[in-house]
Fold:
Amino acid sequence: MEKEKYNIVIEVRDSEGKLITDSNGAKQLSLSDYDIELLPSDMESYLTKLAIKLKAFMPDRKIDIEVYVHNSISRTYMNMFSYYVDENRFIKH
Structure:
């Protein structure tokens, strides 16, 4: 099996479910957005470890992690995996 390139997006909301704002009051859609190469079979383990670390630093926040892959035919990003940190739930789309 070959590694695939994914885009990881981490969304963080406050305890009331509202998007976090920066020092200028602008809403932040995501905490982080980065690319990674990984075997699809390793994704659940990777996201579980990432979720544990994020929750340790932000225990009172609602955190969701979305994983996208670029589709060269449609030139769009497709959501391949989701991890809902508060529910400790991994979904393969």
Q: What stands out?
A: The chain has a mean pLDDT of 94. The radius of gyration is 14 Å. The longest strand covers residues 4-13.
